[in-house]
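Weekly sync notes, structure subgroup
Attendees: PM, AL, DS (notes)

Item 1: joint prediction request from the bench team. They want all three components modeled as one assembly rather than separately. Inputs as received:
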Amino acid sequence: MEDIFFDFDQDAATDFAFWGQIDPNFQFQSQLDTLLLDCSAMTGQLSPWSSFGCQTVFPEAQLTFTDLDSQSPQLEVGAEVDSSLVDEPHEIGKCRQQHQRRLTSHHPYKVQRHAANIRERKRMLSINSAFEELRCHVPTFPYEKRLSKIDTLRLAIAYIALLREILMSGCDPKSYVDECMKNGYKNQTNAIWNTSDLTARLSWIKWD
DNA sequence: TAGGCCATCTGGTCCT
DNA sequence: AGGACCAGATGGCCTA
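Output from the run, pasted for the record:
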């Protein structure tokens, strides 16, 4: 378990290490989402990762449209309609396109199903980009490994709950948290912290 | 090797 | 009717 150092000083914002800040290239994500369904425009590689600062933290997490296509079992049954996306040798690609065109004309259901698959992938990518954005707004450490989706949600819930408590208390954030640590968490809101490994995290907090 | 996490496919349901 | 949303199933990757 990694050490966690929450600091609620006035300049606490600078003490939190976030997964990154939204950079000026934020709009790239929406453009990417648009491109995901614009099959005819696609020939190269794409990353489903947002272009937030977080992306640079995990450069290995790249996925190409070719990957997506090749992973699709539908490819084998010829239901593809976006084979133009596949980066492959010219002749093979041509044959495949013709073959698929034949098959798709006879399998309207498969065409529909594949279109639905593409929409679903796009939807999941947008959800994932939202998770990336959320990761950028919860306090973590540079050396801490990437939060899973469920941990991101839990940490966000806990973080919001703590911020709300601090606001409602009207106390100095640092002294409020100090008090919480001294007295332990007893109220209902604080129970949220026990829903995950956040309790363990808190036991490692150093407040100076 | 088991378990966690994730992406993807799929069929069902709901909504516009 | 078509798209969005959802949950279950499946398989891959990674780590302890």
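Discussion: Residues 108-135 of chain A form the longest helix (28 residues).
Action: AL to compare against the crosslinking data before next sync.
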